[in-house]
Amino acid sequence: MNEAYPIREFARLTGVNPVTLRAWERRYGIIKPHRTDKGHRLYDDEHIGRVKNILYWLDQGYPIRQVKLLMKDNSEQNQEQDDNWQSLQQQMITVATNLDGQRLDQLWTDGLACYPMAIYYERCLLPVLQHVRSQHEQPLLARSFEHLLRRKLYTLIQQQQKNNDGPALLLATNHEDAELQLLACAYALGAAAFQVNYFGPKLSPVDLNLAATSLACERVWLHVHPCSLTEGKQWLQQLNAIRSLVFLSGAVPDCEDSASHIHQLPDAMGKQVHAFITTPGGDL
């Protein structure tokens, strides 16, 4: 066997949280770890390759229940995508319309047991968010859904962070409308053991600099909601002064005059998280 990794280390290496890894093993049989004499799970480099393959198919939009067959055939031939994501979205919209908070919470728990956060957010949560926000004649629908999802994500992140001992990370956004996406990113990065620090959507550019310095964060991620040119310049001025790796996503202002330690992330959350985790370096 190659180098062996216990489940938490394997989760850090792959960005897939332990709950999801266990579901992939028990419910779907798409990954089978080795076991110690005491029954503890151990993973090796071949398992890392297998997880990358699983994530590839999920990123193509295939539901988890189809992945085993796709990996067996190693081909998309005769494997038409079913409408699983649409079905999940419609189910969530129906439950949200009924203001059934408990049922929504269970749907999110079940979904995150099967899918990494970045994929679940892009394929299910984001389309539902866009739908409820478009229902202008029913403002309660969006308010209640966003409140419940925000509460769920805060709870998940708090539980996750108790065991994390990786590099310190500061997450920030300049607008509350971008907060849910940032919280989803926080949970996705927490699966890779990052120690995530987040202080709400109202930090000013100066606050961000002070917090990064005080916490000695190795990395800073700012998700930018569309803002004025003046505000964008204020953010860039403070980010240039931060002595940490800086990552930008969203409506990124003109970065021509930005320092070399500032990186612009791709649009899709899955690619953002991957780029963030795989970019080398830390404190400058």
Automatic annotation (TrEMBL):
Gene3D superfamilies hit by this protein: 1.10.1660.10
Alphabetic keyword roster: DNA-binding, Transcription, Transcription regulation
SUPFAM superfamilies, per database record: Putative DNA-binding domain
Superkingdom: Bacteria
Listed GO MF terms: DNA binding; DNA-binding transcription factor activity
Residue ranges occupied by any HTH merR-type domain in the UniProt entry: 4-73
InterPro entries: DNA-bd_dom_put_sf (IPR009061), MerR-type_HTH_dom (IPR000551), MerR_fam (IPR047057)
Pfam family, one: MerR_1
PROSITE patterns, alphabetized: HTH_MERR_2
Name this protein carries in UniProt: HTH merR-type domain-containing protein
Organism: Bacterioplanes sanyensis
